[in-house]
Amino acid sequence: MNSRSMVASICLCCLLGCSKGGSTNKEPAPTSKASWDSIPSMMLGPFRVYEKTEDFGGGMEHKLYLGGKNIAPPKLFYTHYRALDIILSNTEKYLLLNDSPATKANIVVLVNLDSWRQKNVGEVALKAYRNKRNLDPRLWILPEGKSFSPDDRCVLVEIVLHYISTSEAASANELAMQFEKSWYLIDAENASVVAELTEAPPWSNDARRD
């Protein structure tokens, strides 16, 4: 991840609190400035993310609005129910969302801020990974949205081994050896797979840690 998108990567757990998946919603936004000022918010580059929380009995629903940089009034762009991480792209054209609706789940969504279209790029990467491998069902893998390429043409999604469903240590070690670390470059415009990588590219945060 380059330095700019790394600074813009924000975990919203502190604002959102924690209780099923994410979605968009066309509910009308608050209208007055006083109403917006009363909603918890935080800066994301030149934007401000507002979080409106509602208790629906079985948990908390979090509606996220984006304002600033010619977006007025703030626009509802995502609804989720547990925890969310947001990464702003280098050109400030896209948002990359890591939505964790449950302990063993992660949804990776790419939001185009020009069209407001959303694409599940995590599902694209998972499908590509599974299609090339006869994966043991006891290996629980998840996609993780990592960063944008320097020109924002691609988004980087890593496939991670999240959980091994076995109670025997020896069996777990054998199963873990079957897992192949992979990263996918996904085209930001059409959500197609550009390339599968066996190591993180030099501009990614993973490469900087190695």
Report strand %: 35-45%
The average pLDDT value, as a whole number, equals: 84
Structural class: alpha+beta
User: How would you spell out the order of helices and strands?
Assistant: HEHHEEEEEEEEHEEHEEH
Helix percentage: 10-25%
| Cα gyration radius (Å) | 18 Å
The profile of the biggest β sheet is: 5 strands, antiparallel
Number of domains: 1
Based on CA inertia axes, which overall geometry fits? globular
Task: Give structural notes.
With 210 residues, the protein is an alpha+beta fold. It has one domain (3-209). The protein is 19% helix and 42% strand. The protein is built from six helices and 13 strands. It has helices spanning 3-7, 13-16, 33-37, 121-131, 169-178, 205-209, and strands at residues 10-11, 41-44, 47-55, 60-68, 71-80, 83-88, 94-100, 107-112, 118-120, 139-148, 154-164, 182-187, 193-197. The strands form three sheets. A five-stranded antiparallel β-sheet has the order 1-6-7-8-9. A four-stranded antiparallel β-sheet has the order 2-3-4-5, with no helix packed on it. The longest helix is centred in the middle third of the chain and has 11 residues, at 121-131. The radius of gyration is 18 Å and the shape is globular. The two termini are 13 Å apart.
